[in-house]
Amino acid sequence: MSNTNLTLAVRPVSASDIRISASQMACRLCDSSLFNGTLQYSLAAAPNSAQELPSQKEFSAHGECPGLDLHCCAGCGHYQLVSEPVSYWKEVVTAAGLSQQMRDFRTNQLNNWVSQHELSDKSIIEVGCGAGYLLEILSVAGVQATGLEYGAAQIKAALAAGRVVRQGYILDSGLYFDRQFDGFICINVLEHAPEPVRFLRAIRTICKPGAVGIVEVPNFQKDIKLHKSHNLIRDHLSYFTTRTLALALHLAGFELLSLRECWYGDDLEAQVRVPADSPLTSWSEGTPTTKVLTQLFRAEPGRVAIWGASHQALTLIAMTRPTNVYCIADSAPFKQGKVDPVCGIPIISPEEMIADCPDLVIIIAAGYSQEVNRIIKADPSFHGRVVVLDDLVMQGETEKL
After folding, report:
1. What are the beta bridge partners of residue 216?
2. Torsion region of 260: left, alpha or beta (phi above 0 gives left; psi -120 to 50 gives alpha)
3. Using an 8 Å Cβ cutoff, are 356 and 367 in contact?
4. Of 10, 25, 21, 19, residue with least CA distance to 66
5. What sign has the CA pseudo-torsion 44, 49, 50, 52?
6. DSSP secondary-structure letter at 343?
């Protein structure tokens, strides 16, 4: 494995590196402009990072750290830092695995998730696995667990513990998996990503349709409620509320199954699903409406008229291409005297159509269909048959035609 660019090192950081103008960047979540008026809170000085602590010599040489600015997007309401990420932003560095209380919490959380979604023997990937202590919990729960981690030291520790890990970052251009996964977990990683929606979309692409996942982030709603401004740290570029976490997942194309506070309210846990194949795939085989309409055309030996030159009716005519429809009636004067643009069927006034007494009138008038039906049946001069297409489709009348 290559360790290129993985060495952690304290580097001097100037204010120009960290503080940039809100007018120079777009929202990390919705990509709209962050205007200057969106500034919510400023720290005059803040640690350069949560992990790269300076020695006394380095501190003396560089002095006080620059501050940071927290903005709230005027477009979507997402809280975020207007700053560059820390140098190790692709790596997961955590001591959570050393806490027995946290291990017990994660074991219960992941066991319940595996059981709820019947994931036993399924392939699960942890995106940003660090040294992989959650991989161990997942493996004991009965899944085939794989980790993805960028940090060289964390990869080394994970491999030494016998865990299955891949080196890389989810947005790396050369990253490749020989299969799609049945599920994923991403715990306290998303808040570090400079582009959280793009990050989530990349996860979705390596998962099967129907795959389930857990995304967990720090709970900024609790920080707001308890005035915990000291929870701001340069490592965390995004600060999620339930609304903005749900929005991020929605924009990434996930179906949100549940969203709750966990770990004493400090975190937000979202359970999601990768949507299955599009429900529109069946449309190529014909919809219930086109099937009913086609059968109506085939079953009627006489002259057929359609009432309605709406976009729905005209599209249905284009899809079914009837040969026994001789006219279309519509109340709009500007449509009368014209023809439908696919089959060239003349469009006439309702009065002219009724006077001509077609054998069958098919009403395709959406929300006006029942009103049209009453108008035709109230005219004593009309003796043909009348059907409302929507009624036949809704009542499942296809087999009776």
Report:
1. 187, 269
2. beta
3. no
4. 19
5. negative
6. T
* Structure-block tokens of residue 220: 């900024």
Q: Cα dihedral sign for 72, 74, 78, 83?
A: negative
pLDDT, position 285: 75
Q: Which two tokens stand for residue 105?
A: 């919490």
Per DSSP, the residues of 24-55 read: GSB-TTT--B--GGGEEEEESS--S-SS-PPP
What tokens does 365 get?
A: 């008038």
Q: What is the pLDDT of residue 218?
A: 98
Query: 296 to each of 320, 361, 372, 398, how far by Cα in Å?
Result: 11, 10, 19, 9
Q: Which of 363, 345, 366, 341 is nearest to 354 (CA)?
A: 363
Low-confidence ranges of the chain (pLDDT < 50): 1-19, 397-401
> Token digits for 41?
């809170």
Number of H helices, E strands in the chain: 13, 16
Residue 377 burial class via C-beta count within 10 angstroms: exposed 0-12, middle 13-18, buried 19 and up:
exposed
pTM of the model: 0.79
- Burial tier of 218 (Cβ tally within 10 Å: 0-12, 13-18, 19+): buried
Name the pairing type of β-strands 79-81 and 238-239: antiparallel
**Is 286 exposed, middle or buried (CB count within 10 Å of its CB: 0-12, 13-18, 19+)?**
middle
- Name the CA radius of gyration of the chain, rounded: 31
Task: Kindly report the backbone phi and psi dihedral angles of residue 353, in degrees, each rounded to the nearest multiple of 5, phi listed first.
Answer: -65, -45
Q: Are 240 and 222 in contact (CB under 8 A)?
A: no
**Under DSSP, is residue 262 helix (H, G, I), strand (E, B) or coil?**
strand
Coil, helix or strand at residue 294: helix
44 within 8 A of 96, measured Cβ to Cβ: no
**Strand ranges in 205-334 using DSSP code E only, listed in sequence order:** 207-218, 238-239, 255-262, 267-273, 304-307, 325-329
Q: What is the pLDDT of residues 13-36, one digit of tens each?
A: 333 344 455 556 789 999 887 765
